[in-house]
Each structure stands twice: as C-alpha cells, then as structure tokens.
Amino acid sequence: MTKLTELDAFDRRLLDLVRRDNQMPARALAETVGLSESAVLRRLRRLRAEGVITADVSVVRPEALGLGLTMHVLVAMEREGSAVLDAFARKIAGRPEVHQAWYVTGESDFVLLVRVASMEDYERFTRATLNDDPNVRSFRTIIAIREVVEARTPSALA
Q: Which residue blocks in the chain are alpha helix, DSSP H?
C-alpha cells in the first residue's frame, strides 16, 4: 500500500504554483509562499522523492504537432481477466496516438485520450488497435470540439 504523504499549507501552495508553472524560480516561489528559498527547495526535493511530484513536463499544444483532433475513446473488453487487461494496457501504452489512458469502472473498461492529425489517422488507429483485438467487445468515440479546462490548470489543493 502506498504511504500517504502529509502535506501542510506550504506544500499545498507550492504544489499549486508548480502545477501552473514548474519553471518558476525558487526565489519567486519563496516570496509567494512566505518561506526561505532553501526551505522551498528542500520541500520540492522531498515532494519529488516521496512521489508527490511525479514529473516536470512541458505542456505542448497538440496543434503545434499537427494533432488537431482529440478523441476520448470508451473501450469495453470482452473479458476482464488480469492477463487480458494487462495485455491491452501494454498495447495502448505503445501507441503514439494514445496520450492518456485510464482503467475505469462502469460500462467501459478503459477511457483513452487519443490525438491524431486526421480522421484517416484515427481510422488506422482503430483498425489496428481496437477492431483487430478479439478481446475488445466495443468502443465508443467522443470527439472533442474544444478544450474548456486545460490539464495544467491547478486543482483546488489549498
């Protein structure tokens, strides 16, 4: 079982700030949260070491990469055995079109966030990844019209 990390108000405020901009200098973070720069750096090191901060990434606009279509794909599996679920998870993890994926409860077993340049690319993806998999019972595609809340927008951590 994963150990739950204790987060105080300073930790939560730091996490809120670095979620918005992980390139913000420690000096600016320190001024904003009311700690010394060295205290901020210690806290950030601890949060990374304890797995609270799992990555420092750059969010790239999909259109800049030619990936103008975003779909959420709800996938229902024929069987739900561990081997089947693990095999499907490995398969989608290896597909460049899949930007995020979740194993979920309910009518669907997986939700995939898929980004492609065209409907032709999406059709190629579905044929290779979903249609030809005997363990995929069905899938439903939801095409995103526009993003309303960006992934990097912080949640209410404080």
A: 9-20, 26-33, 37-49, 82-93, 119-126
Between 3.30.1380, 3.40.50, 1.10.12, 1.10.10, what CATH number should domain 9-49 receive?
1.10.10
* pTM of structure: 0.80
Is domain 62-143 given the CATH code 3.30.70.920 in the classification? yes
First vs last Cα of the chain: how many Å apart? 25
Cα distance between residue 74 and residue 128, in whole Å: 16
DSSP state of 129: I
Distance CA 6, CA 85 (A): 33
Over its length of 158 residues, how does the chain's per-residue pLDDT go in tens digits? 356 788 999 999 999 999 888 999 999 999 999 999 999 999 999 999 999 999 988 888 899 999 999 999 999 999 878 999 999 999 999 999 999 999 999 999 999 999 999 999 999 999 999 999 999 999 999 999 998 987 665 554 44
Cα 17–Cα 13–Cα 9 angle in degrees, nearest 5: 170
